[in-house]
Structures are given as C-alpha cells and as structure tokens.
Amino acid sequence: MADITVTEYLLLHQKQSPHATGQFTGLLYDLILSGKTIARRITKAGLLDILGGTGEVNVQGEDVQKLDEIANRIMIYRMERCGALCAMSSEEEPELIRVRPEFPHGDYILVFDPLDGSSNIDANINVGTIFSILRRPDGNRGEVALEEVLQQGVRQVAAGYILYGPATMLVFSTGQGVHGFTLDPGVGEFLLSHPDMRIPQQGHVYSVNEGNWKNWSAATRDVIDWFHNCPSPTGSPYSSRYVGSLVADFHRTLIYGGIYMYPPDAKKPDGKLRLLCEASPLAFLAEQAGGKASDGMGRILERKPDKLHARMPLFIGSADDVTAVETIYAKHA
C-alpha cells in the first residue's frame, strides 16, 4: 500500500464525516503543524537548555516546566491564526482564550493539554499533546460564552493526541474509528501506520499509581485487589505498568488493552484529571476503538463539566476491565 499522509487521509474521507469541511481540515492541518513544531523543540530540549521548571505554578497548582510554556505558546500562536476557531482552552491558562478580533473566526472550539506528562521530560519519558475539538452551537454569534465550551464529550467532533517519543505519532478520531499516523522525519509528514486501531475486549495490564493506596476508599482498594487476583485472558495474572504520563499510559492501553486508572482519593475526591482536556478526548478515542471510559459510576462522555478546569476520576481501556470496575463500585454504593 502506498504511503498515505494525514492530509490525504482527511481529504479521502471528508465525505464520510458531516464535520469534515474545508475549515475543519484546515484546523487539523494547523494542529498537526503545531505538533511538528513542538516535536522539534522536544528533540533538541537538552541542547537548547529548555529542560526543567520555570519556577512558576499553573492554574492546576502544578510546577510549570519550560517546555510546558513553550508548547502552550506554540499552540496558542498557531491555532489563533488558523481561521477555524472562535475560542480555545488550555490546561495552562486559567481562563477561556477567545480568538482576537484581528484574526479570522470559525465555528470550532479547541481544548488542549499542550504537553501532558511534562514533569517526566527530564527523564526522557514520552510526553504528548492531547486535544479535543468542539463545534459552537448553531446560530451563536458574537463573543463566545463559557457555557458554549462546557459541553458533554459526546458532542466532540474530533479528539486525539500527538505522542512525542522514539517515534512521533498522531492518533485521532473524527467519529469514524481511530487511526494512527507516524511522523517520517525524512519527508516531514505523518504517514498512516495504524489504521482502524482497536482495544482488545479484555487486557492483561492494569495501570495505576499504587503509591496512593493509603488515601483510597475501600471501594477503590477492592478494585485494585480484583486486578491483583483476576486472571487475564491468557490465564496469567495481570501485570502492573505505570509510566506516570497519561498520554503514554493510554497509548500503551490502546495498543495492548488493559486499563488505566486514576481514581478519586482523600486528597483529590473529585479526581485529578481534567474532564475537558484529558478525560473526555481520551474517552472519545477509547469508545471509537471499541473500549470504554468511566468515572467509576458511568460513562465519561455523558459528564457535563461545571467549570473550565473541572476534574474527574478516570477508568479507561478494555471494555470488560472497565465494566468490572463499575460493578465493584456499584456494590459499594
């Protein structure tokens, strides 16, 4: 099969998606260009002295890394000028970013985490950009209201991530399955490498930070005990794998199956992960790949955020594994 670039793929499949307009295709093109620019900065991070922290703390109460700030600036600069957006929200910005009047406006809203997992970058661990694309409610004009952005995940028109690692990969869905593209540095293009990605019905790996054990509820401890003792499809015990970079842990789960978990605890009763820029876009991908995503009680994509940086517990991956978690929590309800 001839190499298919991501742009060619979008054009070939444009008629299959009601959202794949010329404006939408242009939005994804600029998003991909942003990812390429970030990837280039990351590969030269050690040489350019842009590793480590800035000394500042973001809206989430987390230490800001130099590359966080750089990736955030790249995304905002490029995407504000793409002509397809009316507003953006970044994990690094406390307020909604409205596209300024001097730039052309479109009908789409972009929500993103510019560099997920950045606290691990000094150790050369995979990091990534997670994004969610929403459409402004029909007929709405003028300045974008916050309520227009606080949409359920089922209303996403596209979602995905760009993974920066040994190979740079773009994984995304427009509601027609999940497809992966690998950046060929020789030609500077993302080429289709993983068509129609599917999560196995049940996996053999669970991923969770067990260092939080003492802060978990009895229900959550029962969940983890279940994975300690349940046989995997091969008959062997589940293996534990935890990178600590959400996008890296999810990518492994998407490829091999299993479950990634970030449950609520005594310190974070609402969970840690942001619904709009982390849980919701990855849930969209999981479902499109035949998997499942839950907050422990129900479907992530049906949860409506009450604020821009609303947090949510997350259990995501193989459908049978996520269902097992919901069953255990229901017994404790």
Automatic annotation (TrEMBL):
It catalyses: beta-D-fructose 1,6-bisphosphate + H2O = beta-D-fructose 6-phosphate + phosphate. Mg(2+) 2 binds at D113, D116, E278. The keyword Metal-binding applies. Residues 199-329 form the Fructose-1-6-bisphosphatase class 1 C-terminal domain. Pfam families: FBPase, FBPase_C. Its EC number is 3.1.3.11. Binds 2 magnesium ions per subunit. Keywords: Carbohydrate metabolism, Cytoplasm, Hydrolase, Magnesium, Metal-binding. GO terms for molecular function: fructose 1,6-bisphosphate 1-phosphatase activity; magnesium ion binding. Its cofactor is Mg(2+). This is Fructose-1,6-bisphosphatase class 1. The gene is fbp.
